[in-house]
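Field log, afternoon session.

UNIT: design team B
ACTIVITY: writing a sequence onto a fixed backbone
BACKBONE:
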């Protein structure tokens, strides 16, 4: 190393929050029963599939429009394993990051872009933002809860399905404090689905 070489790759020897990369915008888009469950206790989505049978052909309740604005998808391992069991991988080559701290390795799926991360929610979103992936879709109950707890969820869209399950895997869990929300918009369909979108936290 020459005397003039800088061993610190960061040109600012005292980095501040302003030097950190802007984190990606994180958005939740999910369906839940009227009593707040996203799956049965065993992870089954049979109730949702049954409800979807009432949706007219060609109606996707805004899903395609939402996905058109998604640069990457972040999900928990349980959610990934449920989706990976579908007959067809639904996300094409959109990058999918599976959160896992167990050393788990994702299976290879033809045409899919899948990676595994054990980063904190904030660190992951900042890394994705620095890589140019500005808009991230968060999927999975426990993952959404952890990102809410970390204070890094920007927007939540919930499509409420007209069904009571009584028990199952909840969409939301315990939080250290209140999370303020501002309603962006709400709409409903004749087959009973009601969809609402909120801005979250400081942005509210």
């Amino acid at each position: 190393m020459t005397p003039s070489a800088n061993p610190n790759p960061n040109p600012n020897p005292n980095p501040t929050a302003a030097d950190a990369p802007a984190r990606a915008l994180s958005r939740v888009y999910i369906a839940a029963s009227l009593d707040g469950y996203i799956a049965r206790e065993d992870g089954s989505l049979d109730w949702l599939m049954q409800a979807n049978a009432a949706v007219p052909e060609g109606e996707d309740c805004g899903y395609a429009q939402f996905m058109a604005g998604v640069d990457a998808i972040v999900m928990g391992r349980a959610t990934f394993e449920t989706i990976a069991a579908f007959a067809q991988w639904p996300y094409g080559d959109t990058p999918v990051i599976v959160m896992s701290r167990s050393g788990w390795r994702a299976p290879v799926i033809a045409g899919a872009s899948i990676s595994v991360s054990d980063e904190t929610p904030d660190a992951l979103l900042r890394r994705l933002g620095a890589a140019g992936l500005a808009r991230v879709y968060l999927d999975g109950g426990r993952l959404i809860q952890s990102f809410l707890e970390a204070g890094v969820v920007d927007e939540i869209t919930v499509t409420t399905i007209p069904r009571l399950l009584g028990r199952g895997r909840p969409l939301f869990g315990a939080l250290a404090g209140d999370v303020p929300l501002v309603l962006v918009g709400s709409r409903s369909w004749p087959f009973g689905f009601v969809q609402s979108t909120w801005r979250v936290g400081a942005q509210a």
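LOG NOTE: Helices lie at 46-52, 63-68, 77-84, 121-130, 141-149.
NEXT ACTIVITY: expression trials, pending approval
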